[in-house]
Design brief:
Layout lengths: L4 H7 L2 E3 L7 E4 L3 E5 H13 L9 E5 L9 H17 L2 E3 L6 H8 L6 E4 L13 E4 L2 H8 L4 E4 L2 E8 L8 H12 L7 E6 L8 H10 L7 E3 L4 H9 L19 E6 L6 E3 L7 E3 H4 L6 E4 L7 H11 L9 E4 L4 H10 L1 H8 L2 E2 L19 E4 L15 E4 L2 H10 L27 E2 L4 H4 L23 E8 L6 H4 L13 H4 L11 H8 L2 E4 L12 H9 L1 E6 L4 H10 L2 E5 L13 E5 L1 H6 L4 E5 L4 E6 L4 H9 L2 H10 L1
Parallel strand pairs: 3-4, 3-6, 4-5, 6-7, 9-10, 9-12, 10-11, 15-16, 15-18, 16-17, 18-19, 21-22, 22-23, 23-24
Antiparallel strand pairs: 1-2, 2-8, 5-20, 13-14, 21-25, 24-27, 25-26, 26-27
Helix pairs in contact: 2-3, 2-5, 6-7, 10-12, 10-13, 18-19, 21-22
Amino acid sequence: MGMTITQKLIKSHLVSGEMIPGTQVGLKIDQTLTQDATGTMAYLELESMDIDRVKTELSVAYIDHNTLQTGFENADDHRFIQSVAKKRGIRFSRPGNGICHQVHLERFGKPGKTLIGSDSHTPTGGGIGMFAMGAGGLDVAVAMGGGTYYITMPKVVKVNLSGKLNPWVAAKDVILEVLRIETVKGGVGKVFEYCGEGVKSLSVPERATITNMGAELGATTSVFPSDEVTKDFLKAQKREEDWIELKADPDAVYDEEISIDLSSLVPMAAQPHMPDRVKSVSEIGKIKVDQVCIGSCTNSSLLDMMKVAAILKGKTVCPTVSLSIAPGSKQVLNMIAKNGALSDMIDAGARILESACGPCIGMGQSPNSKGISLRTFNRNFEGRSGTKDAGIYLVSPEVAAASALTGYLTDPRELGEFPVIELADEFIINDNMIELPASPEEAKDLEILYGPNIKPFPSSSPLEDSIEAKAILKVGDDITTDHIMPAGAKILPYRSNIPYLSKFCFAVCDESFSERIKAEGKGFIIGGANYGQGSSREHAALVPLYLGVKAVITKSFARIHCANLINAGILPLNFVNPDDYDKLDQGDELCLVDVKDSIINDSPVTLKNITKDESYELKYDLSQRQKDIIIAGGLLNYTKESTRR
């Protein structure tokens, strides 16, 4: 029996376990990346492990999230990361060099390699045939130290693409169609592997758009073949030697299959406040638009920028619309500056932002109150833009540019013939904004530079025999990491300061949460289905750890957040009977009876509701290693204990 691309990638990196879906496998990691919103904590964790030099083939630290410097905090974090990178053997991508996923695709990604990053959109690398996954910062730190990365062996979904995209229809519409079919819960425990004749018609930037936003499916990752299109892209980046062919065997067997005829797709949009609320632009209708933002790691490639510039050329942005554009990398910005596309954007009235994440993570460009904002981004969670009552729609660059001109949500096919776009055969290569690390000999004398806002990693304690605490908060389905630990310009500068950050925990759901759990000293969180979807930010686990959350009890978890809870030493538990969720109320006094013995003996956990004199059976999906991590009180404790043996 033949193998899928996914199975080939996993097999070639398998360190432990068997490739049986649902069981845990350990993988050797070739490359890592971090960004500054999660990187400071990741490098604090790396420093706590006393590792002199990273052991991966390549590790890169990017500065792209917290680039708005309204105080010393972000600049101090950047200086800290730069000093660690120099000393520990990590390449450092300076502020202004671009968004981590865009730059990594351009300059470092290699077909056939494994990559984990402390950002949930790391699967962008699947666009060139990498097995690329988002992970918590602690997992990335362990991998940098040479440790194995563990995942549940995924099922593989074949996405069979046929036909070719029509003019004005984009790669963004492909992934929006997949989200419409599968929903934000549909990818949990799965890899989406793109196959079929339609693949050949998609460029690497288009493939990367699809794999990037595959994160919104809850998938482990997404992957495309590495073919002649991939080879041409790497050749244009002067990296042809990095290319290998990678494809599924003709008789490969998949767990599931969906088919999409590219020629049948039309321009689409995801409506507020979830990426799977997808309808065609014509179905939604001509709603008035206040703001358009083009960029993010999803749609900021040279191809995207050239399309936008061609649509805007010789025209003027509607007076009632604010249009901002952020090219994804210095390379992209440099090329559109030299070929005239940047001038076309500026002439049309676009506001040009730096090559960074910016508005996508609430770092500036918040819409007006009750405003409608069209964005080429990957998430439209409530409040993520910085304006809680704004309506955020996710669209392609074509829809965004057309709508910026008309002032209302516009099907770009109404603009007539698609403009001719000429792309360069070669990219401008200038890596002068990527700082190389010091040699091992030079590194011995280098100092790690800490700022006053950088606080220690929160401590945890081993699992107690039984745990008694209140249900301090009860929330519903599809709670995102933005609900748990919000992003935005006001909060992101404190990502390295867990005590201060704790003031904002769950503020989107309940502004009193932080004070209430501090008063209690500990508590349980009760959640619905798909709890913790969205970003890889481990702060959504570290802050609850700091506040005293002992367990999170839900109908189901999103993959990365569940792993982050385990790493933090917080028990992730599920109801055996989902209806028991309805029997619990916020404020109920609860007890996890003999929970340590239950975990050790692999038996169900009993949750006693002392307030209502009821008991419920709970289950968990933990490997033996994860049980040991929970019992030790988290991955850091477990790692330290392991090194002492």
